Amino acid sequence: MYLSWTAGRLDRLHARIDAARAALDAQLLRRASVAQELATSGVLDPAASIVLYEAAHEARQAEEEHREVAESELSAALRAVFGEAEQMEALRAVPGGEDAAGELAQAVRRVPMARRFHNDTVRAARALRRHRTVRWFRLAGHAPFPLAFEMDDEPPAALADRPA
Known about the structure:
- The chain is mostly helical.
- It has helices at residues 2-39, 46-61, 67-82, 85-93, 97-129, 132-136, 157-160.
- Helix 1 runs antiparallel to helix 2, helix 2 (46-61) runs antiparallel to helix 3 and helix 4 (85-93) crosses helix 5 (97-129).
- It is elongated and about 65 Å long.
């Protein structure tokens, strides 16, 4: 009975990991899409637009094994472009800029939450899979060992302080 309960718990944790990863992927895609849309809007200066567009494009097109690096580079590009309050003020001054700034701030704020939720679920599954009983009876089956998603997700100061 204990083995059956443990195997069911492990199965539920793996399902939660899959759901959390899908949510994280959706938030990362949303952040890259908003950044790319903002880069092509003509609101930013040309150099900032190019930096932001290339980082967002790389994040959207990255292969799975390079995804963490590409997303970290997008975070760095966002900090470089929106690190100064003047850029945010210029964005808010244009028509529709306030909505764009709010959407970007919301997307940037949701990524760390989704990543933390995913990594917490991975941590719980790893802890359960380390138990001797799980290893001896091979209760994990053929499921791959869960991996955390590690990236730089620190938001720019100008976007982190914006109210939702």
